[in-house]
Write a structure and sequence with these properties.
Blueprint: E1 2-5, E2 11-13, E3 25-29, E4 34-43, E5 46-58, E6 64-67, E7 75-77, E8 81-89, E9 94-102, E10 109-115, E11 120-124, E12 130-141, E13 146-150, E14 154-157
Parallel strand pairs: 7-14
Antiparallel strand pairs: 1-5, 2-5, 3-4, 4-5, 6-8, 8-11, 9-10, 9-12, 12-13, 12-14
């Protein structure tokens, strides 16, 4: 995928004998890795033709991503909040992160997508008991390259201590 950077200041051009199409845009990628754009825009009851260019780089390198919050066999309390953490990087920039969850380790449902790559997400853990839970995190860069990683299995269960009520003696016995 290509990324354009360093756009020039648009320059108005005149094309004698040509009848430009309103709101039309034409772009081409030159052999020198420069994109050239010619576009037409309406202005004060007439059309103007503009030219712009930018350097273009080809990016085929996907981001890297690792899950840093969960170990194999770790126990997470159900129906609580849990901090999902990750490290993602790219040779340019990570555009978005998608987080998914699987209760049985195979079929994943989206927890959140379009997340900023800030390395943390507060997850509302579902109220389920499972020993096969997994997280999947995908990182995508601005050119569409994507990498996905899946956690080892972890456990979700009720970890709250039991409540004990003393019925007898009730305070009046000797």
């Amino acid at each position: 995928a290509y990324t354009a950077s360093g756009w020039s200041t648009p320059v108005q051009v005149s094309i004698d004998g040509q009848r430009p199409t309103r709101d039309g845009t034409s772009a081409c990628l030159a052999g020198d890795c420069t994109v050239h754009v010619v576009y037409v825009a309406p202005y004060d009851a007439h059309d103007e033709v503009w030219y712009n260019w930018a350097d273009v780089t080809y990016d085929s390198e996907p981001p890297t991503v690792e899950i840093t919050c969960i170990e194999s066999g770790e126990v997470v309390s159900r129906a609580t909040e849990f901090e999902i953490t990750w490290n993602a990087s790219d040779n340019n920039a990570v555009a978005a992160v998608k987080i998914e969850f699987s209760e049985e380790g195979e079929d994943f449902t989206v927890v959140s997508e379009g997340e900023d790559n800030d390395g943390t997400y507060t997850w509302n853990v579902p109220d389920v008991d499972t020993e096969q839970a997994r997280l999947k995190i995908s990182a995508e860069d601005y050119t569409g390259n994507e990498t996905t990683t899946v956690s080892d299995t972890f456990i979700i269960r009720d970890t709250s201590p039991p409540v004990v009520t003393l019925l007898s003696p009730n305070g009046g016995e000797r």
